[in-house]
Amino acid sequence: MNVLLLGGGGRESAIAWKISQSKLLDTLYISPGNAGTSEFGNNIQNLSIQESIKFAKQNKISLTIVGPEAPLIDGIVDEFKKNKLTIFGPTKSASNLEGSKIWAKKLFKKYSIPCAKSTQHSNLESSLEFFKKNKPSEWVIKVNGIAAGKGVFLPESYEDANEALNEIFVENKFGESGEEVLIEERLYGVEVSVFAFVNNNNVSNCIPACDYKRAFDGDIGPNTGGMGAISPPSFWSPDIENEINKNIIIPTVEAMINEGCPYTGILFAGLIITNEGIKVLEFNCRFGDPETQVFIPRIKSDLLEILLKFSKSELNEDVYIELEQIYSTGVVLASKGYPGKYLPGKEIVALPDLNQEFKSIVFHAGTKSNNLSKIYTDGGRVLICVGLGKDFKESKELAYKSARAIEFEGKHYRKDIGENRDI
Description:
Number of domains: 4
Distance between the termini: 44 Å
Oligomer: single chain
CATH topology of the largest domain: D-amino Acid Aminotransferase, Chain A, domain 1
Largest sheet: 9 strands, antiparallel
Number of helices: 12
Low-confidence stretches: none
Strand content: 25-35%
Shape: globular
């Protein structure tokens, strides 16, 4: 079968790597891909929604997989279904779960899904008034729409809140995504990302990971799309999975059905384990980045077969995702200045082979190649080095061995991935 994968980051590299191993695959097309994905399929130009539909028809695509959130929120699944094309992902209405934090928060409250208390604001004045009456360090500011993981602010003072809100409302840094903000109670505990494949009311077992959002060691600095991840976290247990399923995943899936927007695709729950129980921080409607890069190598099952099953109009069987009993650590190599301004076009040297016994994998993200087969940086997050081991110690050592071996001007990475993620 022929498959079309949309996206060009590290997440798509991991998906392409896994799908390329499927016995079901004939040809994989990646739009636009990166310097690494060409090893697993054919990179093609970046396609719009309508261009993707045309390409799928012309190339007999049996399944389209959407990596980034933007096409999902823009309604690509609805358009594909109108054209009777098979696609993995939620509809436009179901994608509101990620596309609007305010919409999602109302859903949580209506169906008693545990989450932080919050208030919403649509202008600078009312937002600042809130922080005059409330201690800023006890709250989090979130832009309502999607913002590539960079629309969350943790003010420590009124000045911090003022600066963040001016970026949102005055400088219009986030465009339409920042037309409203959610000011949310700051929760304390250990964060965990949980992934489940969903088809209406059919839900797979959960796959856990923990990411590292802050730019610098010790969880300081600005939020990024993610500087590394581990899977599974050391605290993961059947009891925790059961609590998450019972109180969060299943109620959310049932709520979506009740609201007339049943969910199909991968459901990505950003959760926090607090002294008062497990609560929702956010939901995303796509594979996480960089979590995908660390949990996909642990999947023993045929990923393409899984995606096909969950893309059906009706799934009448329980699907269990079999996982390897290994540990995975991923270290992101970023460009100097990320998540702010950075200079692309730096040559990458000493890039290890992607297939070194599958114990250490380097997934490309922001990379491009030229006709001379040289590879250059082309994004904020450039590569992710993933180590796989019998324990965390081994997986971490393998990941950092690759991270140290790769060189490019301005290379920046955190040295503490794998630490400080215990209950």
